Amino acid sequence: MEKRVVFRSAWLPYALVAPQIAITLIFFFWPAAQAVWYSFQLQDAFGLRSQFVGLQNFFTLFRDPGYLHSFRVTAVFSVLVAVAGIAISLLLAVMADRVVRGAVGYRTLLIWPYAVAPAVAGVLYAFLFAPSIGIVTYALRGMGVHWNWIINGDQAMLLVVMAAVWNQISYNFVFFLAGLQSIPRSLIEAAAIDGAGPMRRFWSVVFPLLSPTTFFLLVVNVVYAFFGTFGIIDATTQGGPGQDTQILVYKVYHDGVKAADLGGSSAQSVILMFIVIALTVVQFRFVERRVQY
Amino acid sequence: MLKRTIALAIGTAMMAGTAHAQTNIQWWHSMGGALGEALNGLADKFNASQKDYKIVTTYKGSYPESMTAAIAAFRAGNAPHLLQVFEVGTATMMAAKGAIVPVATVMRNANEPFDPKAYLPTVTGYYTDLQGNMLSFPFNSSTVMFYINKDAFKKAGLDPNKAPRTWKELRAAADKLKGAGQGCVYTTSWPSWMHIENFSAWHNVPIGTKQNGMGGLDTEFTINSPLHVRHISMLADMSQKGLFTYAGRTNQGDAKFSSGECAMFSGSAGAQAGIKKAAKFDWSMHFIPYHDDVKGAPQNSIIGGASVWVMGGKKPDEYKGVAKFLAFLSRPEIQMEWHTKTGYVPITKASYELTRKSGFYDKNPGADLPVRQLTNKEPTANSKGLRFGNFVQGRTVIEEELEAVFSGKKDAKAGLDDAVRRGNDILRQFEAANK
Question: How far apart are CA B423 and CA B397, in angstroms?
Answer without folding.
Answer: 7
